[in-house]
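Repro:
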Amino acid sequence: MKTAVWTILIISCLGLPSLKAQGLTVQGIPESQQTYINFYGDTVHTPGINRLQVHLNEPISYPSIESFYTSLSQLPIDQLLNNLLFYKQEKQLDDWLFYQLIRTAAESISPKKENYHRYTLYKWFLLNQTGYAAVTRLRNDTLLLYVQSSENVYDIPSMFYNQEQYICLNFHDYGSNINFEQGRFQDVQIVKRSIATKEFSYKINRMPDFNPDSYEVKPIQFAYGQRNYEFKVKVNKSINKLFNNYPSVEYSMQFTAPLSSATYESLIPALKQTVAKMNQKKGVDYLMHLTRSSFAFENDATLYGKDKRFSPEQTLFSEYSDCEDRAAFFFYLVKEIYNLPMIVLSYPQHVTVAIQFDSPQGNPIVYKGNQYWVCEPTPQLKNLKIGQGIPSLKKEAFEVVYEYQPTHR
């Protein structure tokens, strides 16, 4: 492939003027040929992106996809791919966030609303060329994009291809409603990979650095004991965009998803300062009541028509949350402030958390020889104390779906 003189410049959103505002160009490329992509607070400058536009013959078919892929492969794509990978490494983007960057780049080259099939094929091409194993499947006008991943997701289709699991990335674009029994999909097998591929992971280890100006303050208010408490937490509406099409993942991923830096700094240090005056049991009880009282409750089925598992930051931002969301948020608070061993208990219709304390309490759950005490973060008719589970679940069987053991304390 030819090498073009392209760059991506990341302009920090800390009051620095953009190149465009300064009337400057990059590498001698006229401003009219420059593209500016907004990616969660960063301005990503990608000159020459118009040189990557390839025509796709419609109606879509195997031959038209093959022709599109061949034509795109012959264009000077190397620098763009290197820039995407450099940005991924520089910002430590997890796979899900990197896929959002790929979506943004594909949208800039070929807007989704202009030609959905071409937009999808650009995502397919960029995924494959940046080290992931992605395949497309075609049936009439329906074009599905899959990526290889061995993780469990619960509300989107998957398939086995070459004895490996692939998960669909664009099921939502079809209203999450495709009848796979109405006809066979044709696998598009024209990708030639020159680099080793890696599995795609949905795990979020680090949130992006959202634009500081895009945060708003949300008061978190609740009563505990004889006092009223209020925390002014910074929340960002970009969290909804980031997780808009994020699937329901394993509890180990939901419960360990971090907060963004600004949200963390607006809440966790203040909570640490407040509970520092309490003993461990009272401090955990305080966090339990905060989680119960600070958010309005509503079931996912009522709000969304399906199960959605919120990260802690989504729960903070959202007006409503259910038991899974509160359990994940409470788990995160306890982990960050006390770093205690915990297990997540899943009942047929409920999810809660049990904690291993430094000193024994009453009514423990024994798991792998260790004692844990239920700490119910979802509001109930009765004010449940540490070690008290929901009475109606007393005879219900539960499953331990996640165990957290601190590596150090």
